[in-house]
Amino acid sequence: MIYDRKLHASKPALPEGYEKAFTIDLQSDKKTYLIVNLSALAVAAVMFLIGCLVTPFRALYADGSISVLLLRAGVLIVGSVAYIILHELVHGITMRYYGSKTVKYGFTGSYAYAGSSDFYDRASYIVITLAPVVFWGIVLLILCLVLPASWFWVAYMIQIFNISGAAGDAYVTFRLIRSPRDILISDSGVKMEVYRRTEE
Hints:
By secondary structure, the chain is of the alpha+beta class.
């Protein structure tokens, strides 16, 4: 099972018999960076249209009160910033779940990150990659279902941010699924280095 942390425990050092296969660096690889971000914008646009079918966007400001609208805008801004921090925190918690003793957090100027010097197998790293979007996706979905229509868009816009912002995570997952099962991944937070077994 992918949730068996003993079976999928991280390794503090690269075992013998492995060599670097490829590197994923979404910040330095401009072509991939562009593709991922255009994909994120497309997902955000589709989700916005779906949201309009569920609850008209005018519900956000339909009561006509400037003070209430400013309150919602403030909650949205604070909620979005909190989401970024909590998103990376879930990455970090999942890394620790699989045995990492030290997780570092940071901000590059274009995105926040959680990283570790440990090495993860393919299954555990895919869980680490997708854990935040799944966990917060469920939390935000519940909020969208229980909040009144006037507050729906506050939660839903953060959900759009959550799902569309996972375009990079989806790209990484796609690359790893197409790789051999026995690869190991190191994620410094800035880039991911993938190692494969050398042929004996």
